[in-house]
């Protein structure tokens, strides 16, 4: 089984609880342990698929969600390379138009082609982007990809929206329903402080200095959105929502030409 699937169940409970308590939940410490609903994504809220029709999830043949993605064209989905590397395309389903995993809403498309960025090795070295070709044209609208001209959409401090069905706490369970969170883009200097592998050309970071809000395991491949454009793809990070450890996203503008070529390719 691949790393990303195991990651959802990775142990980190006590540390995660402590970093959350240190963050936004200081006054409701141990809310999760007391049985209160866990904070979605991490520190987010429920989102409507109708408001974000281009967000999709990737599932295996049994229907188990393992990553997110973004509709970039009617029959193309943008996701993280690490989500699809090592998977059999034939066993991956793209689920579009389904807010709750327990519903049968929307469509399940099959994957007929996979493009992984040729320079991709692992999430720590960048190029964590892939484009899937589907067996059908989806009715949902697609999300434009940020271009190198969209510099204003990458300014540190800009609030970005991240969406997904991933874990709602570090080491916790994935969400049944679509969640979203708002996180500020981090400066290159601050991200480099947190991550030695940070490459400002390949990546962009987002998160509050005090942590508390983040994407998490299972959100990978999903969208980070600013100004109605895809500025990032959930890629990696040290734990989830930890203070001083923002989430790392693929900087889509840097790969826009390659992505765009794939979105218009017929295969
Ligand atoms: N690699 C994870 C996945 O495959 C996503 C991790 C995102 N981490 C973060 N702290 N934002 O689902």
From TrEMBL:
SMART domains for the chain: Tryp_SPc
A GO molecular-function annotation: peptidase activity
Gene Ontology BP annotations: proteolysis
Keyword DNA repair: no
InterPro entries for the chain: Peptidase_S1, Peptidase_S1_PA, Peptidase_S1_PA_chymotrypsin, Peptidase_S1A, Trypsin_dom, TRYPSIN_HIS, TRYPSIN_SER
UniProt KW keywords: Disulfide bond, Hydrolase, Protease, Serine protease, Signal
Taxonomy, superkingdom: Bacteria
Endpoints of the signal sequence: 1-31
Thylakoid among keywords: no
Domain named Peptidase S1: residues: 41-264
Protein family (similarity comment): Belongs to the peptidase S1 family.
Name of protein: Serine protease
Organism, scientific name: Saccharopolyspora mangrovi
